[in-house]
């Protein structure tokens, strides 16, 4: 590990049966030795609490700690994540192991921080969970009459007499119930984490941070809520088919950076290949290197690899690793070693130039894309067309905007938007009154808001708004949606932005104010059409800013034109103009004017970037232009401070 320039290792996240081989009997000698040995080689440690894999003695003696799936089947031992997230007994055991670990390592100077559990995933539908969901609903609605009203339970005779009658499901139920179940699951994961956070905090130095590792677009819970109780965000970055989608990966980093609106960790990356895809092809040579620097460019303060060495048996024998079962390096080791050497070189060069630590510098964006768990849930419960993919919408906007703005934040629809010149809100389906008010205030104060199709349709209870879309924003827009349509064939669109089409979703719009402009119109059609000549996008200046509603899912070309237009409205310029397509430029700055640029050629053929004036930190030379071979990386400290 030291030879590979590694400075941190994560351990322990599934090692419960080794830490506590029998109830109340703890064995930490092996972990003491591991931490000491790592320290001897200048490697810091992140400790994982082992609660994603309870030991057999625990679940066989206390089967009530095992999770129950939606169809009523209780989990068995032998896989992982088999616990019930509501079980009070499980939480007692979890708090105890976390507390024993923290008592032992909470003040160990070689322990940097904690990862609680591992990839929180599967909720439980056991009796305790049902009981707690009913209590949660009771607290939220106060009376069953209020719940009946807001859920419109008269429909299909769903009317409830008391909270205990309410079914507990995550599918085929009233949309309000489904949305509340997701919120309940979120709150339950929060209290699940808090249980262990309290146990660690009571025994650990404040400098040791606490996180958990998440799975990018996973919609199992609201990641913004969960991260309120965590110190930093961390995620696991995998491309199971071995093909890096650099644009998508960029969006995923920005999504994770948005959880706490600060730098994050990549807790796991694949060394070559995984074992859980359809075809577990390996990333080609050089792409692991490219991914590591891309993570740093987007605000990662650490990049870790899962896993170091193959376990001889167990479910993940085929997963990529840095060492083979014989304990010697496999080919990808050399690439990871190069990454480590470069991180070291860049850190040293920056320190010499008076920059301080790269971890004090972050990406700073003037453009944001909003992400709303309420909206993705609401749409996924009732997609109306299987082709409408919320994440696809967010990333369609991202793919068009990121190359132009070079830095983009993906943030919660509830975030403070003051710093942004332009905000995109793809499919902001659930629009609570408070969010509508904040967005209106944002526009009034000079912001440029672009809403995507399906926005402003639902209220906080997943009920249809009593006004047409975009609901409480229709007045500011000076227009509304007349009707929405799922499409089974492309519909042409034309207008000031150019020509293109929509093939997934189309909403016909109507302007209601003389100051509302039609930005795009549905084109002519051969046969009968709901669309021909009807507005597809409206825009209106409002206060000091503008509000735009795009009622169609746009093809790539039209989306790119919309992005150019919107960024122009907000006077957003790229950090460096003229960066060729396929080359990504990322900036981290520290608020004192110091900046670092990371440039990556994501394509296969070499490219030249002009207009660069600074020091290439990997070669130590002054540069005014950079030549990048396919998949190559440059790290530049620009001469001018900003
Ligand atoms: C997840 C888990 C790891 C491992 C990897 C394999 O990210 O956190 O324990 O199973 O997947 O890719």
């Amino acid at each position: 590990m030291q030879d590979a320039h590694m400075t941190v290792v994560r351990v322990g996240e599934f090692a419960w049966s080794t830490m506590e081989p029998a109830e109340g009997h703890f064995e930490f000698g092996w972990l003491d030795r591991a931490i000491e040995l790592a320290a001897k080689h200048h490697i810091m440690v992140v400790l994982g609490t082992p609660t994603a894999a309870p030991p057999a003695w625990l679940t066989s003696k206390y089967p009530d700690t095992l999770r129950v799936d939606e169809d009523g089947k209780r989990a068995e031992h032998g896989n992982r994540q088999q616990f019930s997230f509501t079980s009070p007994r499980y939480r007692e055991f979890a708090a105890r192991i976390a507390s024993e670990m923290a008592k032992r390592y909470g003040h160990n100077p070689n322990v940097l921080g904690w990862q609680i559990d591992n990839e929180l995933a599967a909720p439980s539908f056991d009796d305790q969970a049902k009981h707690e969901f009913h209590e949660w609903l009771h607290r939220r609605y106060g009376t069953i009459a209020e719940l009946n009203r807001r859920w419109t339970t008269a429909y299909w005779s769903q009317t409830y007499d008391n909270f205990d009658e309410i079914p507990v499901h995550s599918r085929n139920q009233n949309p309000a119930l489904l949305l509340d179940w997701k919120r309940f699951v979120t709150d339950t994961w929060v209290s699940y984490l808090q249980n262990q956070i309290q146990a660690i905090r009571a025994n650990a130095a404040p400098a040791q941070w606490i996180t958990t590792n998440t799975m990018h677009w996973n919609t199992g819970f609201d990641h913004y809520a969960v991260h309120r109780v965590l110190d930093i965000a961390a995620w696991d970055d995998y491309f199971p088919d071995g093909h890096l989608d650099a644009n998508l990966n960029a969006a995923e980093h920005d999504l994770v950076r948005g959880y706490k609106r600060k730098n994050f960790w990549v807790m796991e990356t694949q060394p070559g290949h995984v074992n859980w895809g359809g075809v577990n092809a390996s990333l080609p040579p050089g792409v692991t290197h490219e991914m590591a620097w891309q993570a740093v460019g987007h605000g990662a303060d650490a990049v870790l690899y899962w896993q170091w060495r193959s376990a001889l048996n167990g479910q993940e024998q085929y997963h990529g690793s840095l060492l083979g079962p014989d304990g010697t390096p496999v080919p990808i080791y050399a690439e990871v070693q190069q990454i480590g050497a470069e991180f070291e070189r860049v850190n040293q060069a920056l320190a010499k130039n008076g920059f301080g630590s790269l971890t004090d510098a972050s990406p700073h964006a003037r453009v944001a894309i909003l992400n709303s768990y309420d909206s993705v849930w609401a749409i996924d419960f009732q997609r109306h067309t299987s082709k409408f993919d919320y994440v696809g919408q967010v990333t369609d906007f991202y793919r068009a905007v990121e190359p132009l703005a070079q830095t983009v934040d993906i943030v919660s629809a509830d975030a403070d938007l003051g710093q942004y010149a332009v905000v995109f809100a793809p499919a902001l389906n659930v629009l609570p009154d408070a969010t509508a008010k904040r967005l209106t205030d944002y526009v009034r104060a000079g912001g440029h808001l672009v809403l995507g199709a399906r926005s402003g349709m639902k209220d906080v209870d997943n009920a249809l708004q009593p006004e047409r879309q975009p609901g409480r924003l229709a007045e500011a827009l000076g227009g509304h949606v007349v009707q929405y349509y799922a499409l089974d064939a492309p519909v042409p669109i034309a207008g000031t932005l150019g020509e293109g089409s929509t093939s997934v979703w189309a909403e016909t719009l109507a302007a209601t104010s003389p100051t509302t402009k039609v930005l795009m119109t549905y084109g002519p059609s051969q046969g009968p059409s709901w669309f021909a000549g009807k507005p597809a996008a409206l825009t209106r200046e409002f206060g000091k800013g503008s509000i735009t509603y795009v009622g169609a899912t746009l093809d790539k070309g039209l989306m790119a034109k919309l992005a150019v237009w919107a960024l122009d409205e907000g006077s957003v310029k790229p950090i460096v103009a003229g960066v060729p397509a396929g080359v990504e430029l990322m900036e981290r700055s520290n608020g004192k004017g110091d900046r670092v640029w990371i440039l990556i050629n994501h394509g296969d053929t070499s490219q030249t970037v002009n207009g660069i004036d600074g020091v290439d930190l990997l070669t130590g030379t002054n540069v005014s232009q950079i030549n990048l071979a396919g998949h190559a990386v440059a790290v530049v400290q620009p001469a001018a401070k900003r």
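The two ends are 37 Å apart (CA to CA). The first strand starts at residue 8 and ends at 11.
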